[in-house]
Predict the structure.
Amino acid sequence: MKTELLSNKELERAAELLKQGEVVAFPTETVYGLGANALQEKAVAKIFKAKGRPSDNPLIVHIDSQEMLDTLVEDVPENATKLMKLWPGPLTLVFKKKEMVPSITSAGLKTVGIRMPSHPIFQKLIKLCGFPLAAPSANSFGKPSCTTHEHVLEDMDGKIAAIIKGSCDVGIESTIVDVSRDKPMLLRPGKITQEEVENCIGPIDVHPSVLHPNQKTKTALSPGMKYRHYSPSVPVVYVEQENLDTVLKSESGKKGLITSQLKTADIVCRYKTTEELMKNVFSYFRDLEKKVDIIIIDTIPKTEIALLNRIKKAASRIR
Ligand code: AMP
Ligand code: MG
């Protein structure tokens, strides 16, 4: 299949392909998404195939209105209504699903993750289509997510119908909160913090994998939680500050360093703020993996829960 590269002026073409049941990649405010009609089994199957994603890993369904939400979910609990004040934006809510949502989309679960995105291209696409779009991150399974169309092309060229050019804002995937249970639970950390969520609905539970991302969790709520993620093709080492000089000296081969400090290595990706690191972390991984033998990440503050979650999942070692 020839993958079309489209501009943000060619959204009608993208919508036409989506209406034909094809898969299209597009920028979102989190990371690039790989979208298809969430209600059409055959279309959703193409997402799983293009990504090489196991079928027990559920997809998030994206909507543009409350009316669309009501067609997909059994009920909207009070906590959900309160959290929907943070929509549109990088927040996914897990609801009890209606029959309407095919089992392939929810990976056989009785629940479905729903998000209302704020990215203008994504919003316009859903409007033009008139149906919800299932969209995981636009990377091959297990690889770092993509935040540029060039990175999507590396993984998806020839496998999907089109890629829309544009830019992402946050740089990591959405925060996920399960509001289908009596006491809501944070399933995945993101730019929207636990504190922001608790300011809306009071204390919530936190899934153990949020804080301990590389411990094998037996309590995966969706099978998708058990998989390793975000892994570049070279080893990633996350290093506590006091060990950095030792690690830089002792590791052999060409070293790529991600840091905010004035340290040196073969290639240095230097950022000023953790927001900038969040926006670029997957691009750093994808650019460095082509040029170095090992990626070393210098300490980040313990309060950066979402970033630490992604980095520790990507890391093969922590020093
Ligand atoms: P992504 O990897 O960005 O495509 O996001 C999909 C992830 O969202 C899955 O791997 C799950 O961890 C989570 N998820 C999606 N739907 C559900 C659901 N119904 N229940 C629990 N987690 C879900
Ligand atoms: Mg993903």
